[in-house]
Amino acid sequence: MARNASDLHLRSNKPPMVRIQGAITPLNEKILSKEDLFSNLKNITPLYYWNEFENKNDTDFAFSTTTNRFRVNLFKDVNGIGAVFRHISNNLPTFESINAENSILKICEMKTGLVIVSGPTGCGKSTTLAAMINYINKTKPYHIITIEDPIEFRYNSEKSLIHQRELNIHTNDYHTAIRNVLREDPDVILIGEMRDPATIRLAIEAAETGHLVFSTLHTNSAFSTISRIINVFREGEQELIKVMLAENLKGVICQSLILREDTAQKQRIAAREIWLNTSAGANLIRENKIHQIQSILESSQDQGMFSMNASLINLVTEKIISPDSGWSYALDKKDFENRLQNQGIILKGL
Fold this sequence. Notes:
This protein has 13 helices and 13 strands. By secondary structure, it is α/β, with parallel strands linked by helices. The longest helix has 15 residues, at 125-139.
């Protein structure tokens, strides 16, 4: 897409805007009338999704041109119809292109378990997952099945056999899809997002029955990810879920994308918190001492784990991001400031 934008924003009676390396930027294009935008968006929207949009006022679908692919969200606001087009690269990401840590490779070598990639919208979760699926597809004689809404990256079967299924086109919902997938002899299952207790339970059960399961959540730390999974269930179910998680949750990768300062081009790099399950971590989940997960992250770097703050400090000391950028993404600001002081680095913005 022109100007290396990640997103195109279209609004009724407003000029188009794009997001470039995290910043919204106006385009020097004519204002889109409500009528023209409505007509153009209707023409590219598959009938099922247009009906959903008219009934629910929002919908998501994939759209392709001869050269580009997009994930599209249609919505209504006070000005009328609007849309956001998220650009999907035609090039599959690799571990090199996403600056993957060795821990991510270690996760991909696992044979069973649940792995969560988490973070806010637009933080690169889909790209990290795609790099992991791409690696497995190239190196393992597995059967990989993805369930997505919509399909983003497209794969060709290489060493693995891979099938991709899209909600509302190839299957009705995540629950039905997961149940059916388990009858299709999978080794690896990618669930685009765990949106409700039923999907979360099925994902854990799929891991429990000997599959490697990947999915996403919109959480920003290992602690909040595990807490979110437990707390979506009713109180009477939580003890069982803790036991199931302790045994089957193998890893949590939380990430944010931060503007680099070591290159003239505006590019972003992922800062990641990575937690890998150990006997100590499993015990904390069973005993409902999840708040102590942070201490495991800080003391287990030799096992490939590190906190978000540790990742940010590493990027700052390597002069990849600025101290102030790191501080803005730090989960514990005071801890981050103390770590910077120990490195002799001063925050300009404070």
